[in-house]
Amino acid sequence: MVVNYPVGVYEGRILSSIGKHVKTIQNFSSGLENHLQNRHNPPMDFRQRQLHNCITRPDDPRLESLKIPVSISGNDPLLHRYPMKITEHVLALMKTDTAVRRQFLPHADENLVLTGQSPDPLDENRYSPVPGLIHKYAGRVLLKVTHRCAAHCRFCFRKRFHNGSETPDHEDFPIGAWLSYTASRRNIREVILSGGDPLMLHNDQIRRILTVFAKIPHVDIIRIHSRILTTWPSRITTTLVRILQKSAPLWFVTHFNTAGELTPKADEGLEKLAMAGIPVLNQGVFLSGVNDEYEGFKTLCTELVRRRVRPYYMHLLDPAPGTAHFNVPAERAVELIRCFRRDVQGYAIPALVREIPGRPSKTPVVSSESQENHLHPK
Ligand code: SF4
């Protein structure tokens, strides 16, 4: 279903001042909507094939054959609320990497829901003037172009999307309304494609989205946030990179939480992006039992830099339901960053931030100078 976004008097004036250009974009976008909404005769596409091979049940024999223990049964209601989805690539990592297991295997601890946890912990729906578009920070909009991910991270603050109840399919999203909203606000300089994982879209869909938003004169930068290099790195094909490269200036933001996720396949993808001249940043989340130990965190950041990826942000966990077992206290995260600062070059040090609904930007997490001399790595 297409939602018609009502264009008000103010927006109408701006739209007419942008004039023909916007009309061209809108015409192009309605073609895009048709394309995205054409669900007749769908072939078995690459996403379906990818899902076909995914592990979606705790009693999948592939887990057993690798001797990977799971703490819930196949009938646990948790799996209806937050379905399990693990790619074969992630499964191979799980064989030896307990930090990867912890991020992707459903766990009985997820049944513990605390006061203050919310399905929409960042209050994104409040900042969504058009369905799927978040305009929270001045100067940029974020588009949730799909709710699909290659694999489901158990700590995700948008895990409410995983069971498909909120929005069943990305084809229902109003691309034209996103475009009108962005084109009519000259202060929007950057468009972020997020999700889900935007690289779950087809190449053709990605190309069309990038093309129409790049035509808006005041949009300087397009940014893509994707965890695909951890979950399904072979998705970064030469063809896809060419599409991204044509939309310059485009920035690519990866989501690696541990050095173990920097596999040879991920390296291949990063190399393709680097050779195409696409700047790559990483943002991760501090997670208990995953990356809250000093040497592991240091290895992640230094290995990213070796691969020409700038560690950009480390986030504190957002309070989504059933994620308390992942929480790293702010003091511990501050301690890790501070000790790290003493050991490595500045550009390897990510900023420690948390998102607080209602704030005009991410909030830096710092502690008082008086603590500095008392904190040491574990
Ligand atoms: S890939 Fe990103 S959006 Fe998808 S489950 Fe993981 S953290 Fe969430």
Descriptive report:
The protein has helices spanning 9-18, 20-37, 46-52, 61-65, 78-81, 88-94, 98-104, 175-183, 203-214, 228-231, 238-246, 264-275, 294-306, 330-343, 369-372, and strands spanning 133-134, 140-144, 190-194, 221-225, 250-254, 280-285, 310-315, 351-354, 363-364. The radius of gyration is 21 Å and the shape is globular. The longest helix is centred in the first third of the chain and has 18 residues, at 20-37. The protein has one domain (9-364): Alpha-Beta Barrel (TIM Barrel), CATH 3.20.20.70. The chain is α/β, with parallel strands linked by helices. The protein has a nine-stranded mixed sheet. The termini are far apart. Iron/sulfur cluster binds next to loops.
Secondary structure elements and pairings:
Blueprint: H1 9-18, H2 20-37, H3 46-52, H4 61-65, H5 78-81, H6 88-94, H7 98-104, E1 133-134, E2 140-144, H8 175-183, E3 190-194, H9 203-214, E4 221-225, H10 228-231, H11 238-246, E5 250-254, H12 264-275, E6 280-285, H13 294-306, E7 310-315, H14 330-343, E8 351-354, E9 363-364, H15 369-372
Parallel strand pairs: 2-3, 3-4, 4-5, 5-6, 6-7, 7-8
Antiparallel strand pairs: 1-2, 8-9
Bound molecules: iron/sulfur cluster.
